[in-house]
Design brief:
146 residues; mainly beta; Lipocalin; eight-stranded antiparallel barrel; 44% strand
């Protein structure tokens, strides 16, 4: 039996995006954890971890030259998220790093239900952004086949 989707307030106190999530295009898993009272997340699985030469993919577009040789697997992707003060299932004031372009964007996380996380990255104001839907893949929800 499936649980009903959570509303903005229903189940909000217990709801959390802590866990492992498959990104929208299915190319990576991101593990979200509590990091000193704020949420953070790192890449823990890649569908294609190797480049065309058979070497691990690296963070080659990072603006910090000293980080360009680090492996994408393990890269911190999400930082500094705090739960909205209204008690809803929204975590805000965080940042998301995009290794595809080497840029960091403001971001909000909205837990739609136990299995669905809406991730909105933006520049300036939230209207100027893009939303992805991630699917939970850890033990708290049915496994997603890959």
């Amino acid at each position: 039996m499936l649980a009903a989707p959570m509303t903005a307030r229903a189940g909000a106190a217990d709801a959390t995006p802590v866990g492992t999530w498959l990104t929208e295009r299915g190319g990576a898993d991101v593990k979200i954890a509590n990091c000193g009272g704020k949420l953070c997340g790192s890449i823990v699985w890649l569908k294609e971890p190797l480049n065309a030469r058979g070497q691990p993919k690296i963070d080659s577009k990072n603006p910090d030259e000293s980080l360009r040789s680090r492996k994408i697997l393990g890269v911190p992707l999400l930082t500094d998220f705090v739960r909205s003060s209204d008690g809803s299932n929204v975590w805000q004031d965080g940042l998301i790093y995009n290794p595809d372009d080497g840029k960091t964007y403001k971001c909000t996380l909205t837990l739609v239900d136990d299995h669905t996380l809406r991730v909105r990255g933006y520049v300036g104001i939230s209207l100027l952004g893009k939303t992805q839907t991630w699917t939970r893949v850890d033990g708290t929800a049915p496994a997603v086949s890959r």
